[in-house]
From TrEMBL:
InterPro entries assigned to the protein according to its UniProt record, in alphabetical order: Glyco_hydro/deAcase_b/a-brl (IPR011330), NODB_dom (IPR002509), Polysacc_deacetylase_ArnD (IPR050248)
MF terms (GO), sorted A to Z: hydrolase activity, acting on carbon-nitrogen (but not peptide) bonds
Protein's name in the database: Polysaccharide deacetylase
Protein's organism: Sediminispirochaeta smaragdinae (strain DSM 11293 / JCM 15392 / SEBR 4228) (Spirochaeta smaragdinae)
GO biological process: carbohydrate metabolic process
Taxonomic superkingdom: Bacteria
Length: 752
């Protein structure tokens, strides 16, 4: 894992100006993408008209539409869609691109749900850091329809799930699931949202089957809903069940943590409990009496540091599970398979070699599976898992099947179509700018991934042809016949600099493109001094940065997800561990210690130090800090950082002086997110907030130098959701306002 405390996650850096004699400009923009790191996008401009076109398309999100005839690429520069036969890429109208004057996005990107027939898009338009309006967009007519408002933002889930026939989609809002009918939309008779409610739950509570039936879990009951039933059952929801009960599960389904998939025949269900435990169930509505012998059903229990990433389930009833985990400070993957056709009373999942696998995709006819690794894609026969062939590809990111005979590999260098029969390869798009420039003839060429490309100059302005050998490029120039270009630094926005164009004949200079519309909030004129000897915040005027602090008190829920999100953004943070957490979860503590995050002490036991029953003197605190040091060392072989805070952030003279005597610095907070308030206190006078509301609260309260604590683990009294589940919402909001996220010691250093 490559951690950094960079403040540049939201900044765009323009460079590489290449101006031809006839005033055609090539330049690049370097941006940061969570998960995939930085990438350079190649851009071109005709300075005589001021138009900007995009020549490379980094595939942060990729989808195949219209039965594999078209590709859609989404990145922070816009949404781009090809014509038929995967040729050409043009901007989708609802999503203005950088070339048409829109800002380049920062942080993680929201997903877009495309209808299987490619005619419609469902997407979220944020109204804040945690909520958005939900829109339906018809691509051909460019008609926009608002489906809902105040919908919760999620970077992990799609905004909607489409039925395979594109006739319905479902979405979540306010703890409930709703449906939307395209037939009602076409007839201009969309009913009020309150009558389209399916029931309580989230997007993980529903799954479409291959037969276009919706499976829905409510508590421990599994329902099947036909499209023809939506209207009647939702209108008469107080009198009728929303669907037909087809099965039961032995757990109460929690849409915050659980998920499920349904077999292709609709008769079986694989229940994903908490992201790490898989249970197979045969669906039957009445389980009061058992028929036949008692059968042991298979399950897969994964370690706490492991999460299910992907599940394939073929019509032949073979299930393959891809998992991901953190181990020894790095990411690891695993593969598990089970063949349900085997005659056995004790079927079980079997682990198979799966190191370095990032993606698996089943072919349409289910005969082959594409397995993505770091240097290419392996093809295997799905039933036997025997190798069939392999294709090298530098840094592959996604793999898709346009047909049984074609494979689309989208990577960090380029996206290509591979024909399986003869092995032909066709470049669909370049992903990045490489070594680019103009030839003597004024042609644009680019070297990416060791391959040579020339812009074709055809009607498809994004098409590149591959060359057998490189041409000689002219020396870079910033002066043409009518214009000169240069880079100028800018402040207060997500662009570090901007391209300036000076007219030789017109005696004028202007920006090639506008600065971002969103500007950062200015720093205060005067710094805020610290009060007392508790470090509660950093400087308010020197840097736009904050520290995220994670308090591990007793249970490890959320730790794996937090480490994953921090790794996605390449961030270092500060953790405080309590003795109870160390003693109960030594494996989690060892993994945390190997993650290169900063780890301080949260004392030996977690209790209210203001309780009059306890004598909390200097000696007691010293012994508690020393005991926590020893327990941490015994579990990890490493030492704690000399940072600490008391349970509940209680501060007293004894607490400060005892810590100082042991060379500890006490770390307080200036933002209380209230994520420790249980839902049981949810009454008129309660401080309880849903976690997305907590995100918006933090964004209102934070300042440069803020210390923002987040509690790990589930509360004994319970909450509807937890702040650690929406860490990416918070980080994205901070990045978009220009904040870097650093460990507490970095705040201290910058405050000196």
């Amino acid at each position: 894992m490559g951690f950094c405390a960079s403040s540049l996650a939201a900044e765009v850096d323009f460079s590489g100006l290449r101006l031809s004699k006839d005033d055609q400009l090539l330049f690049s923009a370097r941006t940061e993408s969570p998960v995939y790191g930085s990438f350079d996008t190649l851009l071109a401009s005709d300075l005589s008209t001021g138009t900007i076109s995009q020549l490379s398309f980094f595939p942060e999100q990729v989808a195949l539409l219209d039965r594999g005839e078209r590709i859609q690429i989404r990145n922070r520069f816009g949404v781009f869609r090809s014509g038929s036969e995967l040729k050409g890429l043009e901007t989708v109208g609802a999503f203005p691109s950088f070339g048409s004057g829109a800002d380049i996005e920062s942080g993680k990107l929201l997903q877009i749900s495309s209808s299987p027939d490619g005619r419609f898009l469902v997407y979220l338009e944020p109204t804040g850091d945690a909520y958005a309006d939900l829109y339906l967009y018809e691509v051909e007519s460019e008609e926009l329809f608002q489906v809902s408002s105040s919908v919760e933002i999620s970077y992990n889930d799609p905004p909607a799930l489409w039925a395979g026939n594109s006739e319905f989609f479902v979405y979540q809002k306010g703890g409930d699931v709703y449906y939307f009918s395209m037939e009602q939309k076409a007839g201009d008779r969309v009913i009020d949202e309150s009558y389209r409610k399916i029931g309580p739950g989230g997007i993980s509570s529903v799954v479409w089957s291959k037969q276009n039936e919706l499976f829905y879990i409510r508590r421990n009951l599994v329902y099947r809903i036909l499209g023809s039933e939506f209207f009647a059952r939702s209108i008469y929801g107080g009198m009728l069940d929303i669907g037909t009960i087809v099965g039961k599960v032995p757990f109460v389904f929690d849409p915050n943590f659980d998920a499920f998939v349904v077999s292709p025949d609709g008769n079986k269900l694989l229940y994903n409990r908490g992201g790490r435990s898989l249970f197979l169930y045969y669906l039957q509505a009445d389980d009061y009496l058992a028929e036949g012998g008692i059968k042991s059903l298979p399950y897969l229990l994964l370690p706490r540091n492991t999460r299910v990433k992907q599940i394939l389930w073929s019509s032949g009833n073979i299930i393959t599970v891809l998992t991901g985990s953190f181990e020894d400070g790095g990411k690891k993957s695993g593969l598990f398979r089970i063949d349900l056709t085997v005659e056995s009373d004790a079927l079980s999942f079997q682990q198979i070699p799966g190191s370095g696998v990032s993606d698996i995709e089943l072919s349409p006819n289910e005969e082959l599976v594409a397995v993505v690794r770091g240097d290419g894609v392996d093809l295997k026969a799905y039933d036997s898992w025997k190798s069939v062939s392999a294709f090298t590809h530098p840094d592959p990111m996604h793999v898709l099947w346009p047909s049984d005979k074609e494979l689309l590999i989208a990577g960090k260098r380029y996206t290509e179509l591979v024909g399986l029969d003869k092995g032909e390869r066709r470049i669909i798009a370049l992903s990045q700018a490489g070594e680019y420039g103009f030839t003597e003839a004024g042609e644009e060429e680019n070297i990416v991934g060791g391959r040579y490309f020339r812009l074709t100059g055809s009607e498809d302005s994004t098409a590149w042809e591959e060359l057998k050998e490189r041409s000689t490029l002219v020396d870079p120039s910033t002066a043409g016949t009518a214009f000169r270009v240069y880079i100028e630094s800018v402040n207060g926005s997500s662009y570090r600099n901007i391209v300036m164009v000076r007219s030789v004949a017109g005696y004028g200079t202007k920006r090639l493109f506008p600065e971002p519309e969103k500007r950062y909030v200015p720093f205060p004129d005067v710094d805020e001094p610290l009060v007392g000897e508790s470090f509660t915040h950093g400087s308010r005027i020197r840097r736009r940065e904050v520290a995220l602090v994670f308090n591990a008190i007793d249970s490890p829920e959320g730790l794996t997800e937090v480490l994953q999100v921090l790794d996605d953004y390449a961030l270092r943070a500060t953790f405080f561990v309590n003795g109870e957490f160390i003693r109960r979860n030594p494996g989690a503590v060892k993994e945390l210690a190997s993650s290169r995050h900063e780890i301080g002490s949260l004392f030996y036991v977690y209790f209210n130090m203001t309780d009059a029953r306890f004598k909390v003197d200097v000696d007691f605190i010293k012994r508690g800090l020393a005991r926590n040091e020893d327990d941490f060392f015994d579990a990890t072989g490493k030492e704690l950082s000399l940072l600490w805070h008391a349970p509940y952030y209680f501060v007293s003279t004894n607490i400060i002086s005892a810590g100082k005597a042991m060379n500890y610095r006490y770390v307080g907070r200036d933002v209380d997110p209230l994520d420790w308030v249980p839902e049981t206190e949810c009454d008129g006078d309660s401080f309880y907030l849903a976690s997305r509301d907590i995100v918006e609260r933090i964004m209102q309260l934070k300042q440069p130098g803020s210390i923002i604590p987040i509690r790990l683990g589930e509360l004994e009294e319970g909450r509807g959701d937890y702040l650690f589940q929406y860490l990416d919402l918070l980080i994205n909001g901070l990045i978009r306002e220009g904040y870097s996220i650093v460990p507490v010691t970095t705040l201290m250093e910058h405050a000196r």
